[in-house]
Amino acid sequence: MDKRVKNLLYMRSPMMELRKKSGLKAEQVAVELDIAMSTVRNWEQGKTIPKLRIDQFVKLCQLYDCTLEELYKAVKSIYSEANTLVA
User: Fold this and answer.
1) Minimal CA–CA distance to 16: which of 76, 72, 86, 74?
2) What domain count does the chain have?
3) How far, in Å, CA of 1 to CA of 86, rounded?
4) How many of the other CB atoms lie within 10 Å of CB of 68?
5) What is the residue-averaged pLDDT of the chain?
6) Are 36 and 71 in contact (CB under 8 A)?
7) What pLDDT, on a 0 to 100 scale, did the predictor assign at position 60?
8) CA angle 60–7–39, rounded 5-degree value
9) How many other C-beta atoms are found inside a 10 Å radius of the C-beta of residue 85?
10) Half-sphere exposure (CA, 13 Å, Cβ side) for 7?
């Protein structure tokens, strides 16, 4: 993927918007979910989708103060957009 496209996706990421709206840093989310910080960054860049246990999804919704549906839409949006721009 072109670096400019990556930067555009990163800046517009719905996953990042949810995190920032909650006032958390990526490092804080990673610690709370017991995952690598790079995993959170990869979600926000559309490189990967969250592959979490149910309890971790619930925790992520609590951290982001969102519903599971809102989280699902954010994940689906960034992942779909990343794949569309690459194609």
Assistant:
1) 74
2) 1
3) 6
4) 11
5) 82
6) no
7) 95
8) 30
9) 14
10) 3
- The confidence band for 44, taking pLDDT boundaries of 50, 70 and 90, is confident
> What is the predicted pLDDT for the residue at 18?
92
DSSP string, 7-64: HHHHHH-HHHHHHHHHT--HHHHHHHHTS-HHHHHHHHTTSS-----HHHHHHHHHHH
What stretch of H or E contains 72? helix 68-86
Which residue do the tokens 């995952």 mark?
A: 35
Which residue range forms the structural domain that includes residue 30?
Answer: 3-86
Alpha-carbon distances of 80 from 13, 21, 59, rounded to whole Å? 11, 22, 24
CATH number at residue 81: 1.10.260
CA 38 to chain centre: 11
- The one-character DSSP state at 66 is -
Given a contact cutoff of 8 angstroms between Cβ atoms, the answer to whether 15 and 45 are in contact is no
Dihedrals phi, psi of 24, to nearest 5 degrees: -100, 155
